[in-house]
Write a structure and sequence with these properties.
7 helices; 450 residues; 2 domains; seven-stranded mixed sheet; disordered N terminus; UDP N-Acetylglucosamine Acyltransferase, domain 1; Spore Coat Polysaccharide Biosynthesis Protein SpsA, Chain A; alpha/beta
């Protein structure tokens, strides 16, 4: 799937004397326009989105992980694509493997409107070829199999990103850091508190920010005590976050990437990156902005709640900017007698609920009389008219839940996990980390109790 898009002739500028805004360490001089250092046409962007997304099930039951809704009106893929397009990087390859139909449709509907033939977004699904008859076996294998498409325009650099992360970054600062440190590979790493390192890859750096070691998901904090960066004079980590952990964002010089993938290794984080660090000059780009990997239901829920509260990725709305997404041209939301507190409501909704608090109400949501919704995410509906006047019926109580698109909840239903169940799986709902998830198109009968 190849979509041409307009390349903006105006390249971004950084004020004289400014250093990379989200990195603390040896500063790279950005006294010249960033495009003087890197021509965006020299960069191919690869977005990894092909995993099964099993930890996000049932949200990934019928769609690819990058196509999962976020924040009431967006999809996860929109965040990384917005970062790319704001960075003037628009030669983009999205690697998918499972349930890619809705992702392909969203990319077409959202990003094909500015087509002029000067740039492109490609969605590359796993394919059988005479050379390889296997599915993608991991992140590194996915890139390896896609190289024949990615390298057609001979990019000098390949930027590898993940589609299930929530953050705002100008990749031109990342590219400038890479050039300023004369690196073969640069990885982005965020400052991390000790209680979180067990789930991440911890990076060890020297005083020049060169990567000299990795430890993937350490079981004991003592194993990475020597990786602390709060003693390095070049860095000023935030209080209580003395470790650098990989964000899964990698920038390769193209020949170095080809060499790094000239084997059968399957995963970047576990094998390719640590092995390459032993042979090549790998620099670490410290990042102290908001970042969240939404690979689990709990992390996905929390990122949405941060967004609702005006924190986290909401910084992307500073100075009038916004996340790029499909323009649906929906009418304003109609609210009739509903008290709404500390919540976000998308376009095209029809609300008769009694009270909505600390929640996100997605596009075309229709909620009946007397219903109370607290601390929940309703993804809304795909169509302007559904099978019933109000998909969320009258006199329901919904608390700490995620209701996927097109779900119908009968009158008088209660979804609040009063028993405090941590994990459960049924045909009509799942519970993950105590959060009730109603799958897409599920139908709960009137009076249902969860």
């Amino acid at each position: 799937m190849n979509l041409t898009m307009r390349r903006d002739a105006e390249h971004g500028m950084i004020s004289p004397g400014r250093t990379a805004s989200r990195c603390r360490g040896n500063p790279v001089s950005l006294t010249r326009p960033l495009h003087a250092e890197v021509d965006p046409r020299d960069v191919a962007v690869v977005i990894l989105g092909g995993g099964r997304g099993t930890r996000l099930h049932p949200l990934t039951r019928d769609r690819a992980k990058p196509a999962v809704g976020f924040g009431g009106k967006y999809r996860l893929i929109d965040i990384v694509l917005t970062n790319c397009l704001r960075s003037k990087l628009d030669s983009i390859f999205i690697l998918t493997q499972f349930n890619s139909y809705s992702l392909n449709r969203h990319i077409w509907q959202t990003y094909s409107r500015a087509a002029t033939g000067l740039s492109y977004i490609n969605v590359i699904a796993a394919e059988q070829t005479p050379q390889n008859r296997d599915w993608f076996q991991g992140t590194a294998d996915a890139v390896r199999q896609g190289l024949r498409h990615m390298l057609r325009n001979n990019p000098r650099y390949v930027l590898i990103l993940s589609a299930d992360q929530i953050y705002s970054m100008d990749y031109r600062e990342f590219l400038a850091w890479h050039l300023g440190h004369k690196a073969d590979v640069t990885i982005a790493a965020r400052y991390t508190p000790p209680e979180q390192v067990h789930a991440l890859g911890v990076v060890r750096v020297n005083e020049s920010l060169r990567v000299v070691g990795f430890h993937e998901k350490p079981k004991n904090l003592a194993d990475v005590e020597a990786f602390r960066v709060d003693g390095l004079p070049a860095l000023r980590p935030p209080q209580g976050a003395p470790f650098l952990c990989s964000m899964g964002i990698y920038l390769f010089n193209t020949p170095v990437l080809l060499d790094a993938l000239d084997n059968r290794e399957e995963d970047f984080g576990r094998t390719v990156i640590p092995q390459t660090a032993q042979k090549r000059l790998m620099s670490c780009f410290p990042f102290d902005g908001y970042w969240e990997d939404v690979g689990t239901i709990e992390a996905f829920y929390q990122a949405n709640m941060e967004w609702r509260a005006g924190r986290g990725i909401a910084a992307m709305f500073h100075r009038g900017a916004s996340i790029i997404t499909h323009a649906r041209q929906l009418p304003p939301t109609r609210i009739e007698g509903t008290l709404i507190d500390d919540s976000l409501v998308a376009d095209g909704c029809h609300l008769h609920a009694q009270h909505i608090a600390r929640s996100i109400i997605g596009v075309r949501a229709r909620i009946g009389d007397g219903t109370v919704i607290h601390d929940s995410i309703l993804m809304g509906n795909d169509d302007d008219e559904g099978p019933v006047p109000f998909e969320i019926g009258a006199n329901c109580r919904i608390r700490r839940a995620i209701v996927d698109k097109n779900a119908v909840i009968g009158d008088g239903s209660v979804i609040e996990n009063a028993a405090g169940v941590a994990e459960a799986e049924t045909d009509l709902y799942s519970i993950r980390s105590g959060i009730v998830v109603i799958p897409r198109c599920a139908v709960l009968p009137p009076g249902a109790r969860i």
